[in-house]
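Bug: token stream looks shifted between consecutive jobs. Job 1:
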Amino acid sequence: MSVETTLRFYKWIFVFGALGVVSHAQVNTAGATNASNFGNAGSGNAYCGPNGEWIGPRWDGPAELPRLCMYTPLSATPSPGVVHGPVPAAALGKTYASARCGDTILLLPGTSSGETTLGRKNCDDSHWITIKSVGAKDQTFPAEGVRSTPCISGVSSLKGRLPFPCRSFPKVLTAKFVAPSSGSAVILNGADHIRFIGIEFTRVANPGALIFSLVDLRSTIDRQTDHIIFDRSWFHGIEGKFPQDRSTDTSTTRAINLGQSNHIGVIDSTISNIYDNGSTASNGNTDSQCFGGGVGVIANSGWGVYKFVNNDCEGGSEGLILGGDAGPSLTPQGCTFGVNCHLDVPTDIEVRQNYFFAPLQWNGNNDSINSTGWPNRKNGLELKTGARIFLEGNVFENCWYNSQPYCYVIDFAPKNQVMSVGGRGTCPSCLVEDFTARYNYGYNYPGPQIAVYTTDIVGGCTACSTLARRGSIHDNLVGDKLNRGSLSVTGFDCTEIVASAGPITDISFRHNTCVNSFRSAYFIGASGKNQLDHIVIQDNLMSLGQYGALPGTGNGCDKPGLRLFAILTKCINGGSNTWVFDHNANFNWDTQNSGSVLGLGFPKDGKGEGNLFYSGSIAVGFTAYGDSDSGFEPAHYALAPSSPLHNAASDGRDIGADIEGLAKVIEGVRR
């Protein structure tokens, strides 16, 4: 990069600072300060004020953080009215119909009901309807701010999971709602201002039942479900035996269907056994999630303000997905997408301190990929639409080859979804902007670890343009143990930035540590020279794997055979060099595939200057790198004081993720 170009780029960074973007050092300081609160009662509202306003930093690098949030302490959802019951679960619908805003409905623990529908009451923030089990008063029920487990429903353990910390012999403290075939356990049809406490949401046990959502937050044109909190509850499907066929299938597609709802909180809860068995799933679905939304055609519904904090989540395909189907049309009519159209995507998404986990008994692989009749496994989080997304302190554990030959830990993938070859995009308003992922930990995930890409997946779509812009990805630890099993597969990247169906701009990828990869550290490309712009890749610690870096699949500026420096100069703003790539430390250089000269093909000018390269891992100075499987001990990847990378980053910090800060943020997330 020329001196003139370098000055021009840093002028761009300075302009962002003048507009209110805090520096990376400031962001990390704020994160470390907040980290001291995690694990304490009320820490679920570390960034949220009593009026639902975001009280954390406004910016993280180029990304704007949420503006609104769900303030979820019990004191924020007052129910000062009449107490009804206790009544059996089957009487909830009738009791709710007669209740008024501000009332409390007590349910008898151990009672159950089939599908129950609750409608709108037009309550306000001072008059919530609380629906809770009497069992929540038991001394063994988790205190406010403490994650519940299946212990609250009398279940002391589940196969292949960590032990549940039951406070005593488990008792049935919950009231239960059971989804019938082709139905849901609870339907909130435009309902508002409800807090559920101590509820079990499940499904009928018989195989072959068509189960799509345990809880359905439906919306109509004039009635979006809003202001709902699920607190210390258990959502679950069936503990299945695999492989399954149509006659034995027990698939459950989703715990909560968000639809186009707004102001939804899921806190301190457990979601388990949510999976779909692909081609053998009775309900015809392949993907399954704990939480899913961002789908619906109502224009300008005001959807979003979602809070998912301190939950256990077993979502087969993804823990959380937004988008992936039909979305609103662009408004106002005649506007230009990404310029002057209304922002009509879910906004203000807070996902913190969740444990996204898949039990290994869902994995049918041995020496070959075995997916038929087994839970479909894909990614940790997949965001195909959304804005002001904040991911912090989440733990992702266990993934493997299944329906696709890789797993993403975090996947920012804006998509104007096309459903068939030659079809048109069904979500013209879909984009992903202002997204932050920091202090997250991926363990036992094979595949691209953190990715930003635009794609339509199905080929031949000429009306599927989308975009990703203003993303900050920092202080994440990924690549710790890669679960290949005995499969001889190698397509695992540390990161991907690929623009195939629209531009990706203003991305900061800094201070991340990827301790293992098998194909490349960097997979970058675009369908045209103007699709990538203002990309910072700096201060990262990456295992290079084979080839070090590879061209992406944009089939444009990233031609096969190009090395990283050539890709950056050809792809990012057409060679005008609106990129920064320096102070990265790269280890496990593959001499056979990447050349005998360390850093060959990397910036600067193809010589690797401004970055550090090592043929193995020893010289890096990890505390305990070992065989790149820490046994879930992220502290192994901290740098020793004697490391040449200690205080060697562009900002004076250690190169790579802030491992000490990450350990504080994820403390207690795994249990």
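Job 2, same session, no restart:
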Amino acid sequence: MAILLGIDTGGTFTDAVLFDEDAGETGTVIASAKALTTRHDLAIGIGGAITAVLLETKINPEDVQLVSLSTTLATNALVEGRQGRICLISIGHAKADLDRAGLMEAVGSDPIIRVRGGHDAMGSEAAPLDMETLQGELAALGESVQGFAVAGMFATRNTAHEIAVRDLIIETSGLPVTCSHELSSKLDSPRRALTSVLNARLIGLIHDLIQAAERHLKLSGIDAPLMVVRGDGALISAEVAKTRPIETILSGPAASVVGAAHLTGSRSALVSDIGGTTTDVAVVTNGRPTLDTEGATVGGWRTMVEAIAIQAIGLGGDSEVNTVEHGMATGLKLGPRRSVPLSLAAVDHPTLVHDMLDRQLRRDIPGDHDGKFAIPLPVEPREGLLSKNEQTVWDDMAGEAAAVETIATSRLNNTALTRLAAKGLVQIAAVTPTDALHVLDIHDAWDKSAALKGLALFARRRNWRGDAIAPDAETLANRIVQGVVKASSDIVLETAFAADGFKDKNLSHHALTQAAFANRSGLIDINIALNVPIVGLGASAGTYYPMVGKHLGAEVIVPDLAGVANAVGAVVGRVRMTSKVIITEPDAGRLRVHLPTKTSDHGSLEAALGEAEAFARDNAQELAIAAGAENIQIKVTRDVRQVETNGQKIFVEAEITAVASGRPRLASDPLIAA
């Protein structure tokens, strides 16, 4: 019996499952558990989930053979701007190059050192590397940065300058270094530099998370390899993830798609995962998630990281509910900001929440901040992070939760509080869809009475005529639930349209689409239908997605373990590593193979292809072993690009790709097996 432990850190919950790999044809989940995610320190929630799932069974901790983690840390850090200060070493770039791909905006106030050097498209040195200037600039930095990103012109065609700079930095500072050629073999140097900058900033965060997880595993008595889910759903070892954390962006959504395919056996489906903060929708084709080969976009940055293609909206069980004006009508707006449900806030701060809600309900006139609370997290903001006004508000809170109306006593203070929340220092508690489910007796995990009071307050808000927007809490709760169903249906449709090649935005709101789902009939028969099922995931999927299916007239599958599908996906994935080699022709009849540490020339294409394939195969296998793979299989493909001129084929370029895949190595396996 091989017992595997899968863990997923979401916006609200951290999930854990124990998986018996040998049970049945595809293995089975023997226990699952949840713990609240501790956003200020994800390791606390991870430890709670591990403890809880072990208590669910009689499995001895020492019987666990593998642990696999999917995490939102990298994604959230990029979105929220919580990253370390780094220095970008730019080799051979013109200033105009640095202005492309949003690179300068991403670097922000962090230092940039520009030095002469770099290569051309054929891998020949464009200019000698100016090591003297580099040494002086590095000495001037002192200890002001936490790591380095190194990016050179055409570094994927010749890595020599990036490697020389990396070696110098490690020798003189000992700090972590990310070279752009390590993350992508593609051209577009500015975007590769951007990816290396983001990776360098994340190294400290992911390193700390993995170390904390390893400590909890040791305390729990678990001595097993730790894997991390990559953004494409494949697994990598924790050691690889520490150096290449950028590859863990979209780790959580990727794990959910892999989990959905495993739990349902669906070869083709639309997978929609509604979490606490976002809803992520992806397409499964032939049993695997569709990838965004152009590079994942996160936090507004288009990276060079190959990850799953997702459509995402800021809609979840913890989305803050607000009002919005549509002409002469007042509607509800869900998200994108995540808030702590009032029903949960009342569990942690019962006296504060109930006393203030009761006081606000006794007033005749609704207030702008009714039903809202500010909860500071137990963290210390780093020096220079806060403005003067933000610091004043932070100091006044003194680490204690408070009603927003007692803090936001002026426009300046209200703005400062909003910024403190955006910086991850304060959480706002407010009415959310989770509270609506408590009011309707669909959800009962926390304090229903607080949810009732909060929705009763919210229902008293006025529309443009001065009337209350809802007669009571129950009516408002039903409107909120229907709003979630409509928004969920729209994002599923948008994903389907995009997958079919329709790139126009908001097609789900098009008049013809609306008419089709309203079953309107006339001279034209309008019909739109999904040809694949919708797989609903997330703790609240069983509530919302049957209604989504009814609205769209689509088949819906909500697996029994929908609430922990991400953790299942984390543990059933495979290791998959890729090695690519480019062949160019700098002169007629001279074929050049571009390897990571050298270039070599050949007189024939077959000789060049032979060297490239041999290296790609060996390198992919080495990468897979380092990433924690066992029973490795390798597939090599050739992409030889030629054009035909006057009846003759002219060589342009060739790309050799080797993909090595295997199952994760278990604790009982030998340390190396190729």
